[in-house]
Design brief:
By secondary structure, this protein is an alpha+beta fold. Helix content is 26%, strand content 9%. The protein has a two-stranded antiparallel ribbon with strand order 1-2. Bound molecules: zinc ion.
Amino acid sequence: MPRAELERAQALAEELFEATDVAPGVWRCPACGEACEAAFEACWSCGAERGAEVRIVEPASPPSRA
Ligand SMILES: [Zn+2]
């Protein structure tokens, strides 16, 4: 595997790890790394605004069968 692809794969893996590192309904501040409630649009710790690129981890919803 070309080195560039390897690094890209590693970056993706780290991204996925970070995305699942926080609790559901929580987003990770890109500035300080603090976990913030989804209700907040800015980090409670450092005040950095939540960027559009920041993904909120959706709560896992169990399959609903009526
Ligand atoms: Zn922050």
